[in-house]
Amino acid sequence: MCLGVPGEVLSMSENPNGLQIGKVSFEGIKRDVVLTCVPEVQVGDWVLVHVGFAISRIDREEAERTTSLLRELGLAGSGLRVVDELEVEGAG
Amino acid sequence: MPAEPDHDTAGDRSGATRLRSWDRTLLGRYRPVYHPVNTSCTWCALGPCDLLSGRKGACGQTLSILAAREALVLAVTGACAHAAHARAVIDHLLERDGPELRLELGPWVQIRAPIIELVMGVRPHFSRDLPKVLDSVDSQLVALLGATHFGGEQDAIDLESKTFHAGTMDLVALEVADLAQSSAYGFPSAVRDTALVPLGLGQVDTSKPVILCIGHHSAVGHRIAELLAARGTASEVELVGLCCTAHDMARGHGASVKIVGNQRDQLSVVRAGIADVIVADQQCVRLDLKDEALQRGSCFIATSDAAYSGLPDETDVDPDSLACDLAGRTAAGTFVSDVERAAELAIAVAIRGKRVRLGPPPATEDDAAACNRCGVCDEHCPLALPIADGVFAVAQGGRWGILESLSQRCLRCGRCDSACPLELPVMALVDAADGSAPLRTTVRAGRGPISDFEIKSAGPSIVLGDIPGIVAFLACPDYPDGRDSVGWMARILAARGYIVLASGCAAMDLSWGSGGEGGPENERQSPYELFPAFFDQGGLVNTGSCVSAAHAIGAAIKVASILLHRRLAGNYVGVADYILNRVGMVGVLWGGVAPKALSISAGANRLGIPVLFGPQGERFRRTLEASSDREGWVFDARRGNRVDIAAAPTALCTTAASREEAMVEIVRLCLRPNDTATGRQVKLGHYVALSRELLGEPPGDVARWVRSPYDVPESWACEELTASLPDGWVHTPIPDPTILEGLVRSR
Amino acid sequence: MTFRDADLVSNVVAALDKAVEPGFPYRLMHVCGSHEHTISRWGLRSLLPEGLEVIAGPGCPVCVCPPHEVGEAIELARRGAIVATFGDMLNLPTNFGSLAEANASGGDVRVVYSPLDAVALAARNPEREVVLFAVGFETTAAPVATALGSANLPDNFSVLVSHRSTPPAMELLLGIGDICVDGFIAPGHVSAITGAEAWQRFPDAYAMPVVVAGFEPEDVLLAMLLLVEQINRGEATLENEYSRVVPKLMSSPAVAAIDAVFEVSSAWWRGIGRIPRSGLALRRELGSRDARERFDVHFEAEQNDLPPGCSCHLVMLGKVHPPACALYGRKCTPSSPHGPCMVSQEGTCFIWYTYESEELPATTQGDAS
Question: Rounded to whole angstroms, how far apart are CA atoms B710 and B713?
Fold first, then answer.
């Protein structure tokens, strides 16, 4: 169940059960989405939503970075190191 | 699928050479280390040829060749014993049930004959399919024995390859025998809840006439049980068994049969005079049993033409009149080869009433009084136990302590008795000193095969290493360090989440040993009551008699087949390579002594299953060890390169000197190149903990097994980690291991 | 968002053409039905250069849900509980029937989109038991866990847990033998929960290159390019193509929510077997929320959990492509599915049937049956 849909957070509030809920717009269609997994999210942010829960915030800067690198591929050809090599501390 | 042997597979005469290349690859990694028993060869009239110091014999033989040749002869002998037994089984069952008997092992087992399928390329469906399989086995064993003739095979590695082949033929014979008898007698198969059967001399009700069946072919024992049940006279006669026959009778009739013990108990049991009638067939029966039995007044009925025992063939005599006649003989021995008649005879003799008195009474100080501590008994004891000291201590001051501790280890072979110049009843003194006798416990009736479902359930965990290993206790009860040794090992392993399998004499001995709270040693709770009989983490499974050892091997084959989705036929080498590299199974033949033990181990080795013997295992002339100064290697099938790693398993055939060493070696032998990081963590955790606990220090080779920091058990402290990783330690990636170049992707 | 751009796609494809060395087989595997969806929907396989292959692994949680667990759900419906399920599970065929059939024959089975819908059902029907049949990987486990952890949870709400976790299945793929993979495309949304670090052991311990990828066609193609380049350099590292969504480290709130209610357990994967540490079970303290404990419903796994002739087990392990199955497209179609891979929107067979052309090979390279 990996289907995740991006949407824009229009407003945020807490529901009677203590869950942080956001009103999220999916290309105009508005739905309530649970935001507890993304506490850093603010109104105006974009989130990725799965089964009514935001599972991640979409970083627009990163999105633009990826897009421009994709464009450059057409110009520079292969061999371009596109993204960060991840070195996770403590795992090795 | 028709049961015509596929002439392109190992079942054919050419089979011995088809697998030669695999054998040589395997033997290149696990080189034979020879432990010659005879240093001069006496096989031909030109000898004896002294072969020490590099001397050659008259035919050009060297010491290694002699040792290899003797090992081959032993392996062929063992394989022939099993093949002859299998033949006796199917001959009887074909006669009893005809050629259309469907071979079934219950709804949970769809791969019924993994060994036959793998080796012969055929899938037997009916009883009529089995003779051809055995014909193929027979002809190959003839060829193998022929190669040991004067001036036969001259290369040690090729002799070893032939020994492997004898082992393979052995395994096929085992599977034929058990498949036939399980189907014909309808043994409960692949189920967890087989009966808990009484085990031990203490379980026998000697107020009734006792029929004791000894040997391997259980047809007569089955028939006796059937007749008693049919006539409603089962409660009048005590039907008991010794050795493999007992296992099979228990599989068929549950707790209405009692198991007195195994091969080690034969002499004591017969001398104790519990058996009014003894029915004996073939293999592992003491050669003096008939005489001992007749001396005690037991009626002795031999039933196998492999062991006539010098008795008159009275098969054609009417059983009732023969029973009458036997009552009048001083030596009531006879040979009856017909199963039905032998069964009728045994019952007819038994229901005439008790004929043997229990006893003699336990030996006392008086019996030891004449001992002068000459020490001849010690010299003849296979374990060099301090018998002389023990008997002398009793003679001098009634101190039984030495004999008591000795009685735990004594193999009850009786050599001391026959050696004593004063003819003291040495073994009787040992028995009298034995505080743990008579044994009164249980063993779970054998359950035969592992089900395909259990394989699917536990298979991934085995291949990944989460289930740290499968340990199969097989073979003979002649342990170097006490009859409770295998039970001790099995309990530790099951408690640690290993899968424990057992068959034959070893399966009975799992019931000895400390465990459970309180009560006298002989009444402790059997591990079969403590651990569930399933093929999964912490399970303890009695597969049955020696022929059921095929099911332990079959389980390893099924793991390969079921996880790989590969057919078995024509795929021997692929499956063996898979097992060698990915299935953490080890056979423990702690007391392996009979030639059959060598043939089973050779068969297992060729399939990539390592075997651990007790120290006497060197008597099989050779061990197969990875060279310690040459690291192992595998091909990484994925990446297409050869990688140097620590050889896992570390040996194919090796020994340990004590049970503590054995425990540590067993868990190490379960390591495989394929272990995932978590699996390796689990296995190393046990390896280090057991080494600490039992040998007093962590193992010295831990660094060889840590491929990356992910392999280190979480419980280890930082210092331990850094200490175990020496300077220059290099991280090696987990390979997709194979030793077959053909399975490697070309890049 | 400026993804799904034809120019960007051709840029990556051109780069792939240059990067792929001739005569050198590259086999990449993904483990996410949504990735297979992207690949098939946009016809990416037809764009790939010769020698580069992408295979679908066990990425469909509905497909790997064993039928005995569906049986447990049906039993609960039979006993009068309202069983809330995600849509895909409704028509999954088993020996016990399907949930849709259970609904038709008197059981109360309701499709929900979100776990909170199931909670709301429980609040609205206080006199009935409501059981959420929770199937899914980590992406779904976090929402289910959050729902279980929320305040004022109705007493009549419980969960039939059927969550699975992909990394152990991937380790099994590497260990089981006969599956040759040169690199993994890691699922982007699972990684949003677990963090990219969940895949770190693959390059570290297995020298297996991994790239976390998003779900637009450019994402998947870019991930393949990164993998090909790693393979060419003989390297194995963890890279994150989906950096706009996936953080380096795990999502603490999501993982904390999961840890608060679940613990790792072994799980049965349909067609494959029991994989250790690959599932979730409710913690003992939450026994009353565990539908199995609450209603004492414990079905045993079945010996044969796929219908005769079905090759889902081979498809899910990436050993064959759907057309190799004798039933595919003939007896087994989305309207009359035989095996689970044809039922779920994330099942490889369903996706192929919907999008793929006829010309692609039935077997993957390296198949040796």
Answer: 8
Q: Which of residues 33-62 of A touch C (CB under 8 A)?
A: 34, 36-39, 48, 50-53, 55-60, 62
pLDDT value at residue B649? 95
Q: Confidence class of residue C223 from pLDDT cuts 50, 70 and 90?
A: very high
Question: Per-residue pLDDT for B6 more than 70?
Answer: no
Domain boundaries, position C176: 28-307
Q: Which residue has the higher pLDDT, C244 or B590?
A: B590
Phi and psi (nearest 5°) for A56? -165, 155
* Confidence bin at B620 (pLDDT 50/70/90): very high
- Rounded to an integer, the average pLDDT of B703-711 is 88
**Total number of domains in chain C:** 2
Tokens of B574: 């692929």
pTM for this entry: 0.92
C321 and C200 in one domain?
no
Query: Quick one: CA torsion of B75, B81, B87, B92, rounded to 10 degrees?
Result: -160
Coil vs helix vs strand at B501: strand
| Alpha-carbon gap: C319 to the closest alpha carbon of chain A (Å) | 22
Residue C19 has pLDDT above 60, yes or no: yes
Burial C36-64 (b: 16+ CB within 10 A, else e): bbbbbebebbebbbeebbbbbbbbbbbbb
pLDDT at B570: 85
The yes-or-no verdict on residue B225 having pLDDT over 70 is yes
In terms of domains, do C184 and C257 share one? yes
User: Which of A19, A53, A77 lies nearest to residue C142, judging by beta carbons?
Assistant: A53
CB contacts of A35 in chain C (<8 Å) are none
Judge contact between B391 and B407, C-beta under 8 A: no
User: Do residues B669 and B610 lie in contact, with contact meaning Cβ atoms separated by under 8 Å?
Assistant: yes
Query: Does A91 map to a domain?
Result: no
| Extended beta strands in B600-646, E state | 611-613, 622-626, 632-636, 641-645
Smallest Cβ–Cβ distance between C251 and the set A19, A37, A79 belongs to: A37
**Beta bridge partners of residue B625, listed in sequence order:** B31, B651
Q: Mean pLDDT across chain C, nearest whole number?
A: 91
CATH for C219: 3.40.50.11740
| Position A83 in a domain | no
Residues C51 and C164 in one domain: yes
Pairs across A and C, CB distance < 8 A = 192
Chain C: list its partners (3+ Cβ pairs within 8 Å).
Answer: A, B
Q: In this model, does residue B566 exceed pLDDT 90?
A: no
* Average pLDDT value for residue range C317-326: 92
Give dist(CA C271, CA C11) in Å, integer: 39
Same domain? C321 vs C292: no
Nearest to C303 among B108, B637, B675 (CB): B108
Query: Of C182, C205, C366, which is closest to B677 when you measure between CB atoms?
Result: C205
| Mean pLDDT of all residues in B81-98 | 97
Which domains does chain B possess?
A: 15-185 (1.20.1270.30), 196-350 (3.40.50.2030), 365-433 (no CATH), 442-742 (3.40.50.2030)
pLDDT of residue A80 exceeding 60, the answer is no
- How far away is chain B from the Cα of C257, in angstroms, using its nearest Cα? 24
Chain A segment 5-34 residues within 8 A of C by beta carbon are: 6, 16-19, 34
Residues of A in contact with C14 (CB under 8 A): 73-74, 77
Neighbors of chain A with 3 or more C-beta pairs under 8 Å: C
Q: What is the ipTM for the molecules in this complex? A: 0.90
User: In chain A, whose CA is at the least distance from the CA of C61?
Assistant: A1
Give Dmax (Cα) for chain C.
Answer: 67
Residue type at C47 in one-letter notation: L
pLDDT band, very low/low/confident/very high, at C368 (cuts 50, 70, 90) = very low
In this structure, the answer to whether residues C192 and C340 fall within a common structural domain is no
| Alpha helices, DSSP H, located in C125-182 | 138-149, 166-176
| Same domain, yes or no: C248 and C326 | no
Q: Is C12 contained in some domain?
A: no
User: For chain A, how many structural domains are there in total?
Assistant: 1
Does residue A81 sit within a domain?
Answer: no
